[in-house]
Amino acid sequence: MNRLAQTALLFLLGATLLHAGTTDLYLRYVKEGLRPMVLLAGAVLIATAAATLWYDRRSPADDHHQHREPRVSWLLALPVLALILVAPPALGSYSAAHTGTALTKPFGFPALPAGDAPLRLAVADYAGRAVYDGGRSLHDRRLKITGFVTLDREGTPYLVRMGLNCCAADAQPVKIALTGAIPPVLRPDTWLEVTGTYTPRRMKDPVNGGPIPYLRVTTARPVPTPHDPYDETWNT
Questions:
Q1: Which superkingdom does the taxonomy of this entry point to (predicted)?
Q2: How big is the chain by its Cα radius of gyration, in Å?
């Protein structure tokens, strides 16, 4: 590509990263803590584009027309435009149903706050305590957990959150199987806020044989997709 095309693509990509970093769009691709890096990368690309244009204008005129690149090279701009015009949704039930649970044993279990109100837990926090701590801190507690619905081939419903190490490319699910007062109709990818209690019942993930704890549901209601659909608590 000639320098004009290079400059245009660098500027477009940089502007796209700045747009993603100043909105919630970047959360579709990377974890929340990487926002400064996304913004920095966008600024560096725009600065590089400006420097390239400045250098090109200062170069002798004969250097500008040494090669004529095909116009088809401008099609390289289409993937960049797609980042703005066709932002992909966050990974959901299809990925969760075809990927085994990524639940791993935490280093420890911090004490939970006391009280009679329902205790809000992340999917990974409940699953870790239920599997690797025998549910000792969960007995006699009303719990409130939010996640999206996925179903396996047998129709077993799970409440799921996808966890990130870095970006959406390495996202893996942590799953909770549901029992009790389950809504009669469950659509995959529906986000639910579930209130329930611990049960020692467990099952093996049909994909990789990993442990999946059950939650006994008392109430469930649909909720909007959260600001950050990915769960970063399980690997922090």
A1: Bacteria
A2: 24
